[in-house]
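Illustration 12: Fur family transcriptional regulator.
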Amino acid sequence: MNKTSALEHLKSKGYKYTDKREDILSYFEKENGYRSARELLENMRERYTGISFDTIYRNLHLFVDLDILESTILEGEKHFRIKCDSKHHHHFICLQCGDTREIRTCPMKDVEKELQDFAIEDHKFEIYGRCSTCKSA
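Figure caption equivalent — predicted structure in token form:
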């Protein structure tokens, strides 16, 4: 998803367009990976000196609820990234720099065999480690 389509989706759901929301989406559009609310807050304080964690969290959770952002837990803290446009895939996430790479392989066929008596409604598969740049450093 890009910022323009995210803002259109936000408006179509009856939510207001604001400069802060646009700047939040711009931040995630340029980042290649999951970022914490704290990282976003530090970035936003350059332009909005009085911005609060409450404002950041409220917008992040709105964007997740509207399927504009996706979230994961890294080191006990929720991190966010802009929703991918591509077909079904999963992610490798660098634990050092947060860089994210798409993984096209999905283990669900094997999992479905093991859970034949269950109704699987959704899934998320993430691999954590160090990217080639961080591994070399």
